[in-house]
Amino acid sequence: MDADSTLDEAYERLHRTGPEFEGWLSNHGPMAVEALVRHGQARHVHRWLDRYMDRLDELPRGLSPVTADDWRAALGDPRRLADWLAFFAREVRERPWRTVLESWWPRLLPGIAAGATHGVIRTGHAVHALLDHEDEPRLAELGQALGYWAARWQRVPLTTPSGTAEPAAALAGVVRVPDQSGGISHRLGQLSGLPGWPTALAALRPAADARQARDLLAEVTTAAALHYLPAAHGSPVMLVHAATAPMAVLRTLPALPRTEWVASLHAAWAASAAVTAAYAPAAAAPPDSLPTAPGSAEEVFELAARHGDEHVIKLADTCLEVHARTGRPEALAAVVRAAGLVEELTV
Q1: How many structural domains does the chain have?
Q2: Is 145:188 a contact under the CB 8 Å cutoff?
Q3: What angle do helix axes 97-108 and 81-94 make, rounded to 10 degrees?
Q4: CA dihedral in degrees (329, 332, 333, 336; nearest 10)?
Q5: pLDDT of 129-149, one tens digit each?
Q6: Where are the beta strands (DSSP E) in the chain?
Q7: Domain span at residue 263?
Q8: 299 and 259 both lie in a single domain
Q9: Does pTM surpass 0.90?
């Protein structure tokens, strides 16, 4: 069986399950299998799914259909999850998927924090697969991703970048939320009244046009991936999303009108900074305590695949792209650190 067929079969298996389980945890299956296939690990996909799917829930039941007239009232209402899934299933069946994405991206983008940023991350993986080729399982996956995003839609307070800082310096200047307890919704809820939050967002240098926005977004993704290495002990799992969320947006840009690229940069930067504010440690780990990356990028991804944790796999997917673009070995070392820290959490 070729890799494309493996991915499509995996999507079909996963589409019998809901986007969440145990009340609110995100179903990472579609994101992880897309990353495994893309990086040459398709042979592991069904075995990985056999283990992962034991924890998943069935598809939720709907309340009432979402319509073109009342969608605003349903936006961000997790009780309407099944209704949103059905709505976008129809959308991607009846209209070209790029048209659906173009219509809904500016509506969903302000709520980029949806599902701890998993709405946009799952969408990015789905678009990544569709840009390879279109078929029914991949169209269905985009519908599921957009439906999940719409149901969990959650704002992050935005401030337009207007400073002079490069992404690494801007990320280093992000202030931490004062109460570092509770879940992500509680932590992100503190941003609106957080002194220094608007200033930290504004510190990033602006993009003058779509091309600059794309390039700057790539640098934001790089900064977040490299920041993970010394900061991961703040939250080995949650800090992954500071890098994977902007990567998802970056991968979606080729399917979007260039007029959406600057706004996409702003939202992705705010999401990355918000996750950093919510989970970064008070102090970075000493450099001499950090791992180095053994071997090649391919060996590092194989390590992630053997490890099996969905967050390690997703981070590896992002970090390998950062490494390919920049040559920075810290990007690969971040995967090694994630694997070690997540292993400690499960022992």
Answers
A1: 2
A2: no
A3: 140
A4: -160
A5: 999 999 999 999 999 999 999
A6: 20-21, 25-26
A7: 156-347
A8: yes
A9: yes
